Amino acid sequence: MSGINPDGSLKKFFTPTPSSDIAIAASTGDLSALERLLTPTTVTEKDEHGNTPLVWASDCGQSAAVKLILDQTPADESINAKGYLGNTALGRAARGGHADCVALLLERDEIDANICNEKKQYPLHFAAFKKKTNCVKLMLESGKVDTCVIDRKGRTPAEDTSVDEIRDMILGYRDSNTTK
Questions:
Q1: Does 7 map to a domain?
Q2: 15 lies in a domain?
Q3: DSSP conformation class of 10
Q4: Residues 95, 170, 101, CA angle at the centre, nearest 5°?
Q5: 118 inside domain
Q6: What is the 3-state secondary structure (H, E, C) of 84-145?
Q7: 46-57 burial: b if 16+ Cβ within 10 Å, else e
Q8: How far does CA 49 lie from the centroid of its chain?
Q9: For residue 178, what pLDDT band results from cuts at 50, 70 and 90?
Q10: Which of 63, 71, 84, 136 has the most CB atoms less than 10 A away?
Q11: What are 158-172's pLDDT values in tens digits?
């Protein structure tokens, strides 16, 4: 299921809502339910939308739930898992401006901050386009993002924002890391 039409326009999709007990617990930050429901199997299980508990928690800005899930074994196996429309937990957290979740995810060695979704949108593009300055800053400071990734329209994250401060941060990071 590609998110791009043959003419290059984006397909319109419904917005999923969590329906399983573990997805609801992750998305609402119900830590007692999440602790009860999380097992080595359920921590990596995808629901009917393709989302793991980590994707739901990140999407909804539930940083305590993100931390709890990341502390579970084998959560490392799901940190880069793609959910609905190919979105990762980092992509969903960045899109929503959930800086606490972004920081927790970026702390993990296993994170790949440069995974695009089916619409060819990267986490840094999401944060830049949605004007989430704190998330952009965290991603740049992590040293884990590629500032030159290209979206489906041929734009880099610096070209995908209307905020001068964000554009300057990205270009400054790029310049300081290409001259070394």
A1: no
A2: no
A3: B
A4: 35
A5: yes
A6: HHHCCHHHHHHHHCCHHHHHHHHCCCCCCCCCCCCCCCCHHHHHHHCCCHHHHHHHHHHCCC
A7: bbebbbbbbbbb
A8: 16
A9: confident
A10: 136
A11: 999 999 999 999 999
